[in-house]
């Protein structure tokens, strides 16, 4: 009886370990791009990678597809291209890249991008289809934007004040 309880305890501990170590997705800019300082017209890449627990030698099983890219900050970005990662015998523990997204910053402003409903399955198991990456915040600025008249007036008043202060000194 004690052997049976020990065996059940070990099985529950193993199940808890696997359940707590489920993989997750991470979305990040590629090549050192500063997503908080994008310039109008700039092309850049965002990568979605697998992080967390993976078994050595575990590779993408493919075929599950699915998922949705959401752009809360639309129409700031335009998705130009979607590139799947290398799935041919690429072990997730050495090459966690799932896919690359190529964007162009089209309109000044801020927003987020994220993926939802992504499915993960491997040569060892099916993790399901409720994975999300992001939200990844971004800001697009227009370097040719003309300052507002109030800003120009404030700068003018500051310069006038400095000139008067210098004259008195």
From TrEMBL:
Record field: transmembrane: none
Signal peptide limits: 1-21
Alphabetized UniProt keyword annotations: Signal
Stored Pfam families: PEP-CTERM
Alphabetized InterPro entries for the sequence: Ice-binding_C
Domain Ice-binding protein C-terminal: 145-167
Protein name: PEP-CTERM sorting domain-containing protein
Organism encoding this protein: Pelomonas baiyunensis
């Amino acid at each position: 009886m004690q052997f049976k309880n020990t065996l059940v305890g070990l099985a529950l501990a193993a199940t808890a370990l696997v359940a707590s170590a489920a993989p997750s997705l991470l979305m990040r800019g590629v090549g050192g791009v500063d997503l908080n300082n994008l310039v109008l017209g700039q092309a850049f890449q965002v990568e979605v990678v697998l992080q967390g627990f993976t078994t050595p030698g575990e590779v993408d099983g493919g075929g599950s597809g699915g998922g949705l890219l959401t752009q809360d900050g639309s129409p700031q970005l335009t998705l130009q291209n979607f590139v799947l990662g290398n799935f041919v015998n690429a072990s997730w523990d050495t090459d966690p890249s799932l896919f690359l997204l190529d964007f162009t910053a089209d309109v000044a402003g801020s927003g987020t991008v994220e993926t939802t409903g992504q499915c993960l399955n491997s040569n060892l198991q099916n993790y399901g289809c409720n994975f999300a990456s992001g939200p990844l915040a971004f800001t697009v600025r227009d370097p040719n934007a003309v300052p507002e008249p109030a800003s120009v007036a404030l700068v003018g008043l500051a310069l006038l004040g400095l000139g008067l202060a210098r004259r008195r000194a």
